[in-house]
Amino acid sequence: MFSTSASYRLITANLQRSLDNVAQQPLPSREIEYYKQEIANIKSVDDFMANDRVYRFAMKAFGLEELSYAKGLIRKLLDQGTDDPQALANQLADPRYRDLAKTFNFVRYGASTTAFTDATQGTVDRYIRQSLEEEAGTTNEGVRLALYFERKAADINGPFDVLGDRALLQVVQTATGISPATASQPIDKQSAEIAKRIDLSELKDPDKLAEFLTRFTTLWEIDNPSSAPASSQIAALQPAPFGIDVNTLMNLQNIKYGGR
After folding, report:
1. pLDDT in tens, 125-184
2. Which residues make Cβ contacts (< 8 Å) with residue 20, sequence separation at least 6?
3. Phi, psi (5° rounding) for residue 253?
4. Where in the chain is the domain with CATH 1.10.3700.10?
């Protein structure tokens, strides 16, 4: 079995080919074809929520598959849109919700919402990338985390962006040696510890990001060796859902970059 670093490099050496391979697999290709055919018929929040297959496709595309059951929350999110600063999408710290509401902004664009590229090919591209990351995670969760971090790095503007996303936090903790036990500390203290260990702004530089992820995958491999005995390996590779549950999200809704 390839090491975490080797597996990650194998996927990213020709990322487009890796994405194309995933998109051509039977299940993803069927779901992509269905979404492309049906999305033009979605003209309202009611339509979006009523077509469970389109709804679940979009939830997966935006990294929210584990919360597909929370239709009440998602309906409220879409019913409010993003224009009002007090809208739910703008109050939640997790940007995945804002991205979903912005893409399917029926409040602003009405029936024209699904004619925009973000709702059509843009959502398909997100779905394929999510599928690639999930597939990587079935054999090595460290590779999934590295791919996820690489995708999100450009949007990280400070420690609170990391603290609001469990997957990003796990990568930063592993790469910098921050103990997961610090999660019990006040949020401002956790933020200060991250800022002390790493200059997150440097990760917008592709070379610095590559160096950081090399460190992460190397350290992950030490703690989670790919050649581990079968029983411990299976346990280590159980995919953990990214993000946080609904109750925690609601508690964190006022925590944004800067902590205010």
Report:
1. 999 999 999 999 999 999 999 999 999 999 999 999 999 899 999 999 999 999 999 999
2. none
3. -60, -20
4. 4-123
Written as one string, the DSSP assignment of 1-59 is ---HHHHHHHHHHTHHHHHHHHHTSHHHHHHHHHHHHHGGG--SHHHHHH-HHHHHHHH
The backbone torsions φ and ψ at residue 70, rounded to the nearest 5 degrees and listed phi first, read -85, 60
Please answer whether residues 161 and 257 qualify as being in contact, where contact means their C-beta atoms are separated by less than 8 angstroms.
Answer: yes
Report the distance separating Cα 63 and Cα 131, nearest Å: 10
| C-alpha to C-alpha distance for 1 and 203, rounded to whole angstroms | 29
CA distance 259 to 179: 21
Query: How many whole angstroms separate alpha carbon 199 and alpha carbon 208?
Result: 10
pLDDT tens, 29-77? Answer: 999 999 999 999 999 999 999 999 999 999 999 999 999 999 999 999 9
Query: pLDDT band at 87, cuts 50/70/90?
Result: very high
User: What's the rounded Cα separation, in Å, for the pair 252 and 254?
Assistant: 5
Assess contact for 178 and 172: CB atoms under 8 A.
Answer: yes
**Dist. CA 216–CA 80, nearest whole Å:** 39
Task: Please give the CATH architecture assigned to the domain spanning 4-123.
Answer: Orthogonal Bundle (1.10)
Instruction: Report the predicted TM-score, pTM, of the whole model to 2 decimal places.
Output: 0.82
The answer to whether 166 touches 243, Cβ cutoff 8 Å, is: yes
Backbone angles phi, psi at 46, to 5 degrees: -60, -45
Least confident stretch, 100-114, 134-148, 165-179, 223-237: 223-237
For 50, other C-beta atoms within 10 Å of its C-beta total: 11
User: Amino acid letter at 87?
Assistant: A
